[in-house]
Amino acid sequence: MSASGGRGRLAPYLVGLPGALWLAIFFVVPLLVMFSLSLQSGNAEEGFRFTWEWSNYTDAWERYSTQFIRSIVYAVVVTALCLVLAYPVAYWIAFYGGARKSTYLFLILLPFFVSFVIRTVSWKFILNDQGFVLGPLKEAGLLPQDFHLLATTTAVLGGLTYNYLPFMVLPLYVALERVDPSLVEAAHDLFASRAAAFRRVVFPLSLPGVFAGVLITFVPVASDFVNSGILGGTQTTMIGNVIQTVYLNSNNYPLASAMSFLLMAALLVGIFVYARALGTEQVMEVSQR
Amino acid sequence: MSTVATRQAPPEVAPAPAVPGRRRRWTRLILPVYTWLMIFYFSLPILVMIVFGFNDTQGRLNLRWQGFTLNWYRDLFAIQGLTTALRNSLIIAVIVTIASTVLGTMVGLALGRYRFRGKGAYDLVLFSAISAPELVLGASLLSLFVTAQFVRGFVTIIIAHIAFSLAFVAVTVRARVLGLDPALEEAAQDLGADPWTTFRKITLPLLAPGIVAGGLLAFALSIDDYVVTSFVSGQVETFPLWVYGASRVGIPPQVNVMGTLIFLGGVAIAVGNAVLARRQQR
Questions:
Q1: pLDDT above 50: residue A4
Q2: CB of A50 less than 8 A from some CB of B
Q3: What is the ipTM metric for this complex?
Q4: pLDDT at A220 over 50
Q5: Which chain A residue has the Cα nearest residue B29?
Q6: For B154-172, how does the pLDDT look when each residue is reduced to its tens digit (9 = 90+)?
Q7: At residue B12, does pLDDT exceed 70?
Q8: Do residue B135 and residue A248 have CB atoms under 8 angstroms apart?
Q9: Of A227-241, B2-16, B98-112, the least confident
């Protein structure tokens, strides 16, 4: 922290100012504007006026509670799936990856080198009714002709799980990699079975990773609309799809803003409760990374 | 958004078998086989994308394998809307990379180097900008532009992209600043360098890897972004927007080819970077 004396007092403000202004004008102010918009009434043609229109919020809930609840349920299911699928991978790479740890991680991060939309479209390809997977199976009579995966909950959950799995592997790996193998040996020396050593030593030490992984998976999944937009149908619409449509097609900005705020509030409350349940030290540790 | 950089772990010896001897052989294979299956699962859509870029298909129904062709590589730019969208994406990504790298580096320096009033708030805003759902970023920016009656298009896309990538660059550079050895700068000043020379000759070169990493991240985030862009794009189409729109009617094989080329470019940069870093360590 050795600021080069003299002009040092002013330097941080000068260096930090442009970025601070940008973030203030294009991140903080928009959130305030959105909140104000969510309390306005009117329509796109005649303009909107601020009228403390709290009914936008009750309206949003009454009209779209199904999609709200569905998004939260999907996010819970997908986060749980990701955790279960990712943990063994992260565990094996961290403890047995040896000199090739970074190669394995690179392979797991490969999807990030392909656009998010293209990856999802690629799954649409793979799951297509007449595609190269389902097509031959139907022709061979192994599947009924009207069998389909696209536009089902399964397809959307599958797409979400695929797209967010790497976000779960990374924090788990970081936490597991820090676990000192000699602690496991010590547990064995004290006659712990492999299962007991895992349950009593490794898993508790990996909890910060679990915590971080759950957070950075749950929040984007709950607000995702690309997967259900591409792989889903009318029965899988998530709250993100609704918000996008109401903003861009219906131009009902107050209602859409109210929904965005409800979603944000729900996620914030969720994070807070979750953080409380797991203890604040872990939150601090995660946020300092 | 991959914020976690893959640290170069020193080669370690795999821990000795936990319970000596006794384990049956095949159970040792479960985890590695599972991991490789997962790696296959991760790369399956990528393989499909690459392979079907060579598919000799008719029109837009690129579903079943019809035979090998290089036509789509030859006719890469045959679809005008797609070409324009890709060009837009590239122009936007270059501008965003330059602007957010400069701004983000300054923020990273300010936060990593100095203690000042309001630093806590600054940190909090940065952290929120990174962790806020993209949906909320896009929706709130749209609210701003609608309220200010700002015409949506190129400018609004660039503004939005800078807003989120700047935070990622700042965090990446800050990590590098925190790892800097202050003795090196002190030595330069002891040898009579003025602060600006010290910054230019010592600090900046030492920060360079962090700045480059941040810049690459900004480029990747910008060129890949669908969610925020879909809210603020107006009439302008970017590559992800075009592909998303086309996914309803069928994706032409040119998209596979472009995806493949972008993928190979990205992998080449990443591998080159890793090789370079390894060579420098020696």
A1: no
A2: no
A3: 0.88
A4: yes
A5: A92
A6: 999 999 999 999 999 999 9
A7: no
A8: no
A9: B2-16
A150 touches B63 (CB < 8 A): no
| A40, β-bridge pairs | A50
CATH code of residue B106:
1.10.3720.10
Confidence (pTM) = 0.87
- Please report, for residues A196, A209, B16, B18, the alpha-carbon distance to residue A95 in angstroms, rounded to integers and kept in the order given: 17, 15, 10, 11
Which chain B residues touch A166 with a CB distance below 8 Å?
2, 42
Contact yes or no for A247 and B4 at CB 8 A: no
Partners of B109 on chain A (C-beta within 8 Å) are: 15
Checking if the pLDDT of A104 tops 80, the result is yes
Nearest-by-Cβ selection for A115 from B131, B170, B259:
B259
Q: How far apart are CA B170 and CA A168, in angstroms?
A: 23
Residue length of chain B = 282
Same domain, B260 and B228: no
Which residues in chain A are contacts of B166 at CB distance < 8 A? 19, 22-23
For A138, the domain range is: 65-287
DSSP string for B197-221: HHIIIIIHHHHHHHHHHHHHHHHHH
User: CATH number, domain at A102?
Assistant: 1.10.3720.10
Q: Which residue has the higher pLDDT, A5 or A190?
A: A190
Give A104's contacts (C-beta < 8 A, 6+ positions apart). Answer: A93, A97, B35, B39
HSE, side-chain direction, 13 A CA sphere, residue B206:
19
The C-alpha of B193 sits at a distance from chain A's nearest C-alpha, in angstroms, of 12
Tally of domains in chain B: 2
Chains A, B: CB contacts under 8 A, how many? 283
3-state secondary structure of B33: helix
pLDDT in tens, A228-252: 999 998 899 999 999 999 999 988 9
Q: Are residues B154 and B218 in the same domain?
A: yes
Q: Do B139 and A247 touch (CB under 8 A)?
A: yes
Residues B122 and B73 reside in one and the same domain: no
Q: Does B158 touch chain A (CB under 8 A)?
A: no
Instruction: For residue B15, give the nearest of A118, A121, A184 by CB distance.
Output: A184
Examine the domain organization and report whether B217 and B121 are in the same domain: yes
pLDDT for A279: 61
Residue A44 lies in a domain: no
Domain presence at residue B265:
yes
Q: Does B197 touch chain A (CB under 8 A)?
A: no
- Which residue bears the tokens 């403390």? A52
Taking only the tens place, the pLDDT of each residue in B199-257 is 888 899 999 989 999 999 999 999 999 999 999 999 999 999 999 999 888 889 999 99
Residues B226 and B143 placed together within one structural domain of the fold: yes
- Residue B70 is part of which domain span? 36-55+63-79+252-269
Question: Does B15 reside within a domain?
Answer: no
Contact A156, A224 (CB under 8 A): no
- Strand ranges, E, within A109-168: none
Closest-CA distance, A41 to chain B, in angstroms, reads 13
Q: Which residues of A touch B226 (CB under 8 A)?
A: 115-117, 226
- Measured between CA atoms, the residue of chain B closest to residue A3 is B114
Cβ of B2 and A247 within 8 Å? no
CA atoms of B276 and B264, how far apart (whole Å): 18
